[in-house]
Design brief:
9 helices; 7-stranded mixed beta sheet; 5-stranded mixed beta sheet; alpha/beta; binds zinc ion
Length: 291
């Protein structure tokens, strides 16, 4: 329907915004008992420029490797060097987005280990990454408990280990989380954030540093989305109609270069409000809305 791809919107942002805020420590860093992190450069949304790869398991291994997302050979070589000293048991994927899976197939082939993910992730990766083990809510694998958290992505899983939760793209330590319809669903995302509030205290996001007080961060995220939704509702009341008109009001506090991406999250809010009977499309066009 003529909507730009998220990849092309990332490109537009990257052309203007430098990834200056994202300078992670090099090498393998312990972040929680039994969890170490390695930030690798990936083609992700600025200001983030890296995706965290988490190694879960004892110091001498074997370890489960979560989200080896870099497609770049020099970055994959850093992880390969580390894994010559620490045996790997399997690859775990939080979801199917490119900056989380870019190195998964090469890694699994090199070490001859399974790739495990949710069924919806496996379906979306068909032809790119062979997911050989299907995980679902409550499954425990390599000492990691899987929690199904759809919303950012249809098959998103969070991996709990001890008092920490490897949070994928549910929250971000740097940058923001995009909810992109139709694979993104605002109502599901908010329900998943709510569910995570009763989970482990420490959140280990895919982008940026660890979040020590997870419940506080999740509460802040929920409040922020509620504020945004309130603004969408009042913009509709005051007569804004097209996505262009709505984004200018609802995201007036956001740099213009991000409005293309903001339109995606705006649409996610509108589709949620539509289901609740609080917004409707004009002439069936999802770029034009009224109360
Ligand atoms: Zn993602």
């Amino acid at each position: 329907m003529g909507e730009p791809t998220v990849e092309s919107l990332y490109e537009q942002v990257r052309a203007v915004v430098a990834a200056t805020e994202d300078e992670p420590a090099p090498g393998l860093v312990p972040v929680a008992p039994g969890i170490r992190v390695l930030a690798l450069r990936t083609p992700t949304l600025p200001p983030a420029a890296h995706t965290n790869v988490y190694l879960v398991g004892p110091e001498i291994g074997p370890v489960a490797v979560v989200d080896p997302g870099s497609p770049y050979p020099d970055q994959q070589a850093i992880l390969d060097t580390i894994l010559t000293a620490i045996p790997i048991s399997r690859v775990l994927l939080t979801h199917h987005h490119g900056d989380h899976i870019g190195g998964a197939a090469a890694l699994a082939a090199r070490w001859n280990v399974p790739v495990a993910a949710h069924a919806a992730t496996a379906r979306r990766l068909a032809g790119r990454v062979a997911v050989t083990e299907i995980l679902d809510d409550g499954d425990i694998v390599d000492g990691v408990r899987c929690v199904f958290t759809p919303g950012h992505a249809e098959g998103h899983l969070v991996f709990e280990h001890g008092d920490a939760s490897i949070a994928g793209d549910m929250v971000a330590g740097v940058g923001t989380i995009l909810i992109d319809p139709d694979e993104g669903d605002m109502a599901l995302y908010l329900a998943s954030l709510e569910r995570m509030r009763s989970g482990p205290r420490m959140l280990l996001p895919a982008h940026g540093p660890a979040i020590v007080d997870g419940p506080a961060k999740l509460t802040e995220y929920l409040a922020h989305r509620a504020m945004r939704e309130q603004r969408v509702a009042s913009a509709l009341t005051s007569g804004a109609q097209t996505l262009e008109q709505l984004v200018a009001v609802v995201y007036a506090d956001t740099p213009r270069v991000l409005w293309g991406l903001a339109e995606r999250s705006l649409l996610a809010h509108l589709l949620k409000l539509e289901r609740e009977g609080l917004a409707r499309r004009v002439d069936g066009d999802r770029r034009r809305w009224s109360r």
